């Protein structure tokens, strides 16, 4: 049964990722970075950090629910394959500085937001507060 929940959550995550891409189209034209992928990976890093550090427990998610949300939704919402392909495209277009900047911004931003999600989840769990 868990496979069904992960699959449903995965479909929802993919739909949200697609919607984010549509919403960010106007920003992408003004910036030199693939904005939708960056925002999805940032918010997904934060969500996964928060969920893994107590957020899922505070939401009273069962183990099945936690796995569905983290592996299914967040897994399909974040897009390392898109990040990789977009970086290669920037390199092939001769946009070396943009490609290297995108890699560094993605890496450090994702790490920072995962850390922030973990810290917020830990603090809320320690306080016993509602997340």
Can you walk through the features of this model?
This protein is an all-alpha fold and 131 residues long. 85% of the residues lie in helices and 0% in strands. It has six helices and no strands. Helix 1 runs antiparallel to helix 3. Keywords: Cell membrane, Ion channel, Ion transport, Membrane, Metal-binding, Sodium, Transmembrane, Transmembrane helix, Transport. One of its GO terms (molecular function) is fluoride channel activity. It is found in: Cell membrane.
Annotation keywords:
0% strand; 85% helix; mainly alpha; single chain; 6 helices; 131 residues; globular
Largest sheet: none
> Which residues form runs of ≥5 with pLDDT under 50?
none
Element order: H for helix, E for strand: HHHHHH
The first-to-last residue Cα distance is 27 Å
Domain module count: 1
The coarse overall form would be globular
What percent of residues adopt helix (DSSP H or I)?
over 70%
Which structural class fits the helix and strand makeup? mainly alpha
Beta-strand share of residues: under 5%
For the CA atoms, what is the radius of gyration? Answer: 16 Å
Number of strands: 0
Query: Which whole number gives the mean pLDDT?
Result: 87
- Number of contiguous helices: 6
Topology of helices and strands:
Blueprint: H1 2-23, H2 25-30, H3 35-58, H4 63-77, H5 80-92, H6 96-127
Helix pairs in contact: 1-3, 1-4, 3-4, 3-6, 5-6
Main location: membrane
Binding site for Na(+): 75, 78
Family: Belongs to the fluoride channel Fluc/FEX (TC 1.A.43) family.
Give a brief rundown of this model:
With 131 residues, the chain is an all-alpha fold. It is 85% helix and 0% strand.
């Amino acid at each position: 049964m868990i496979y069904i929940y992960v699959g449903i959550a995965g479909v929802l995550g993919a739909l949200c990722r697609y919607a984010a891409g549509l919403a960010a189209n106007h920003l992408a034209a003004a910036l030199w970075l693939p904005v939708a992928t960056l925002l999805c990976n940032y918010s997904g890093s934060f969500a996964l950090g928060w969920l893994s550090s107590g957020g899922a427990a505070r939401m009273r998610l069962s183990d099945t629910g936690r796995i569905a949300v983290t592996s299914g939704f967040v897994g399909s919402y974040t897009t390392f394959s898109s990040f990789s392909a977009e970086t290669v495209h920037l390199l092939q277009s001769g946009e070396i500085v943009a490609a290297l900047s995108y890699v560094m911004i993605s890496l450090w931003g994702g790490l920072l937001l995962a850390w922030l999600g973990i810290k917020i989840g830990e603090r809320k769990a320690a306080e016993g507060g509602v997340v």
